[in-house]
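Working notes for the structural subgroup meeting. M.R. asked for a predicted model of this chain before we commit to crystallization trials. I am recording the input and output together here so anyone reviewing the notebook later can reproduce the run.

Input as submitted:
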Amino acid sequence: MLKHEYYKAFVAYAGCNMVLAAAAAALCAFIAPAAAGSGIPEVKAYLNGVDAHSILAPSTLFVKIFGSVLGVSAGFVVGKEGPMVHTGACIASLIGQGGSRKYHLTWRWLRYFKNDRDRRDLITCGAAAGVAAAFRAPVGGVLFALEEAASWWRSALLWRTFFTTAVVAIVLRAFVQLCSSGTCGLFGEGGLIMYDVSAAKVTYSAPDVLAVILLGIIGGIFGSLYNYLVDKVLRTYSIINERGATVKILLVITISLLTSICSYGLPWLATCIPCPTDASASCPNTDISGNYKSFQCPSGHYNDLASLFLNTNDDAIRNLLSTSTVKEFHISSLFIFFIAVYCLGVITYGIAIPSGLFIPVILAGACYGRLVGRLFEPISKLDVGLFALLGAASFLGGTMRMTVSLCVILLELTNDLLMLPLVMLVLLISKTMGDIFNKGVYDQIVKLKGLPYMEAHAEPYMKHLVARDVVSGPLITFSGVEKVGNILHALTSTGHNGFPVIDEPPFSDAPELCGLVLRFHLLVLLKGKLFSRDRVLAGDEVLRRFAAFDFAKAGSGKGIKVEDLDIEEEEMDMYVDLHPITNTSPYTVVETMSLAKAALLFRQVGLRHMCVVPKSQGRPPIVGILTRHDFSPEHILGLYPHIRFRK
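Returned structure, recorded in token form:
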């Protein structure tokens, strides 16, 4: 480039980008397809009770780490923040399941976390740690886990996430100090404050407040449009990606080439600007990062578009948030960069690489924020760098619909507490404006992926239904002492995870609901072959034969499957006592309970199964079982298509 061999420079630039992009895509396509994308929607769904396939597996963790490094290095308009949240959750899941037997990484002391609640708490802490590490914002990480990730929150979880993010901050501080000499590349850049704008004087008047309100409205509109376009692009890519791994990699290479063309070609549209005499950084700059890129400009001049495109994403954000540099970027350059980043951000999310949404949104928002600051310059007292910060806040609020956590993250990122009132105002306006049009981007992605996420509120049409109206059939029940063949047939022919256990004479005076038994516990019991030829209670024999940890929740891919059972033909007619492994106190609701109340109870307690019992005597002791599927709008509106329109 310095020798004016521009075409060779482009071939080298685009070639490197495409090789890195192809490597990231190959990892995702062949090793762990679940690692593609942000990962925040999947973590959010897991913490809501949806354990989708391989989303927290060790292979996903491996691809998430290295795929994210390759994807960001390839120059895509993506961030590392979403993948770091997913990475933190994967590490927490690995710890919570006692390591990985497949990769010979197991720790016996970690078995104490092998239950649903502790594993969920660990993954919440992991997600908070990911945000704290990505943004160097420990308090923001706690609030992100509270506001966006977790569906159930306890006071004990608050101090656990706070402790986790405090450790992250200490470790980060140590590494930043270690790398302060520049031995770690760009890692220590900015210290713990990534985008410091505290040098700017914060004074504002009525015109500035009007500009902030305008930014909030623009952010809400652009954010909702961004969510709409991302939804359409994801639907298109899902069809393309179904054609196989090769097509996924070709799509990634195509987007990489398009990104390289924009990053290298668009700076040619900008005019060279004379270097400012009072520039704090060297101008022009020929380093791998920084401000005032010379590109094709003569000595003493810089290319403002090259300073944004041919830079790391973090440095581009620093340049946009830079204070006391009003004329650094032309209005036309800001407009071109905004359009390019907005469009590239939309078409890049959804390809087969780990990709976060935070950085593209902050880049686009800071760009139009600075643009508005330039337009309001004659009547405004605020620095254009602070307008860029408010623009980033407005776009984040318009896309992600978070308020408290985003506010604190932005303040920790920029080290300017005086901006708190304006950041709060712009976030509230942009979120309110965006909610008029559609849901937040992560909620849309959860729905698009078909994950049965349960909202914290019941839908209005649920008030017109009762629990028995949506129970799926046929109901499969077991006796307290059941034939091995019947259990094996039920496990083989259905995918149910829970089965009601009913006691009948001679074990009770009349048929009555004993409780609920889980599929995994049945498999463990059948694997142990604690059978008897007569229909009798096993007593304490189960406790002597099995340890408590035998029935602990298995990690991903480690549970017993039906295919692992070796049941002989003569054992099919033998009996097994289910009482020792039955949950004798399941949550039950009467069949006439409002479906809306049942849904709230199901969500707030964090259930997987809810037993529906009859209202009157003389009937079978259980009407059916409600699961997450039975509360889904698709199931209910499929049964009652016209109920949506009832008041």
